[in-house]
Amino acid sequence: LAIASTTTSANVSALLQANLGAASDIGFDVIACGDQVKEKKPAPDIYRLVLASLRLPAETCIAFEDSANGLRAAKAAGLAN
Q: Can you give the pLDDT of all 81 residues of the chain as single tens digits?
């Protein structure tokens, strides 16, 4: 299970803590943020980083997105959504 967000790591941490509590990152194998890649969504960079970190091929993964740019990024990286 991973997070592929275009926001900063500080924002992701704050959102997770506010919504899931102090140990909110425990359930995720990878948390990748926009400040770790060159191009943000709709570019597939963040998804490619997550896939490489998980060591999984895109065709074995699924993305859940909340925006059109996120869907474009996931599709461009080869993920189902």
A: 999 999 999 999 899 888 888 777 678 999 999 999 999 999 999 999 999 999 999 999 999 999 999 999 999 999 987
CA-CA distance, 71 to 81, in Å (whole number)?
7
Q: What is the pTM of this model?
A: 0.90
SS (H, E, C) the chain: CEEECCCCHHHHHHHHHHHHCCCCCCCCCEEECHHHCCCCCCCCHHHHHHHHHHCCCHHHCECCCCCHHHHHHHHHCCCEC
Task: Report how far residue 21's alpha carbon sits from residue 75's, in angstroms, rounded to the nearest whole number.
Answer: 31
Tokens of 44: 């597939």
